[in-house]
Write a structure and sequence with these properties.
The protein has about 210 residues and is an alpha+beta fold. It is about 30% helix and about 20% strand. The model has no long low-confidence stretch (mean pLDDT about 80).
Length: about 210
Amino acid sequence: MRYLTTDLEKLSYQFMRHQLIIVDNNWIIRSCNNAWRQGLGQTYNFTHLPAFFYSESGTLPYLNLLEAWTSPERDHQSNKTIQRLKNIRTPFDSNHTYDIAIRLPNSKQRWFRIELTPLPTTESPCSSELALIAHTDVTEQKQAEQQLQQALSEVRTLHGLLPICAVCKQIKDEQDTWNSVESYLRKHTHAEFTHDICPDCIRRLYPQYSGILG
């Protein structure tokens, strides 16, 4: 079977910035690159893990590794991601991409995008006993998304019919209190006001200055 054979392929694999591993159809890690060794590969000392995390051969399957990384405060999305990974059929026959939150030893949470790609051989081009898994840190992207969601949740919009006085133009609110337009908008939106005077009011109130309006 042909996987990584040439020196160029090996160099590309070892020195890519993404943290890469190769797993077999039992999810045992068979290979990893330098970025993995210097990153997630040295994140934890796994000697403290309970025996049930390990396979019968004493190795630590990748899926069990993810469970250890995300325990005990695993969120709903991470639970779903791990379950979806467990449901992937082997031999591997399709690509998969998921995001998962990992708790680091310093208690900081980092988000990683996991991308699984089967490594087909010339003998079996449609499926494979091995898969390449790339880990990309997307924490900043996730933080930006969360900030955007928070900002959107704070945006208040006006909709429906607004009772407005036909004479003084005050608006009646939900408590049947009449408010000036400025007061009402300030309560129901994040708008701030600066005051100016329109050309029509200048002509009506200050006719002596209307000539400068043209």
